[in-house]
């Protein structure tokens, strides 16, 4: 029964039962963690062979990968990810181990020098603003905050960012220089940006002539079901709309091979690639091509990546199903929370009663269950409704996911009963 339909006496009884369940939890001395979206050891084991690669040190074109050079990255690895991301091989760079670093560098180059189509460096403008669909990825927001870029939020819908809200903002304000999008299996909402939304964003009129879409496709291949979402081809959409330099695409193998020793990619128009490597050349003589070669040998081709991702799915899909089962069975009838059922990616986004997310996280912490801080999925850590909690179930073993989720459900119910006055 919905908690709001209970009489005052019933609600008091309900609260007492949940509080007792909570006290039991605290007594158990749990030590569980649903905070960061990290691959589990079993997932990392899928790529163990990388540790005995590469065989030899020569790339297909004869490049000695041990030496300096090759700023755009090893051709055979770029070829594999160009095919997967649907871009030309001359439109992609393979870099170091972190796409976040490429995003950071790209922001700094814009601030110091301006982009391919900028009149001035962004940094000389009085203010620079970015649009942030929320809930979104906390590190995107902390990067912008760190570089003094103001953040304007728009709602993330199940089809991607709310296009009308974005259009209304960018139409008149030239200080709005860009926006984030995690187009496929968004962090944390799981949304997949539809072709319609992507087309509208690629084509929309912007007051800033050098408006950028930071298209962070971190979860492009991370399917959890047979219905494998295909990312919109943002580079082609932007090109046909007359804004070829608008999107900058990011991706990495962080959640494909090793989170700490994968390969990151940046894609864009050929001019964007020349612009990016032109700036990069000042800080690097070339990337870790040994890592590129071992990744290329490990995968073989694009299908090798697809097959590998199915092995990840076999490990993590049961954990996501378990999150759904516990939420449904523990919270469903009480109508105090809603959540998404992602078809891919690394997260479940849980919305609890307004004003109770921080309390849930606090209760969970006291019971030994670490959750991502409430508000983390919003710029400045400020969730105006204090209702969103990001759950990351990939890292703990399945039995710990069950225990942690049961604890979360109890905390949600305790906080809801408190909020309703019990
Ligand atoms: N983008 C998103 C949306 C992510 O969720 C993450 C990892 N949590 C990253 C980027 C980080 O990627 P990388 O390891 O390539 O820096």
From TrEMBL:
Keywords: DNA-binding. One of its GO terms (molecular function) is DNA binding. InterPro entries: AspAT_Ic (IPR024551), PyrdxlP-dep_Trfase (IPR015424), PyrdxlP-dep_Trfase_major (IPR015421), PyrdxlP-dep_Trfase_small (IPR015422). It holds the Pfam family Asp_aminotransf. This is DNA-binding transcriptional MocR family regulator. The lineage of its organism: Bacteria, Bacillati, Actinomycetota, Actinomycetes, Micrococcales.
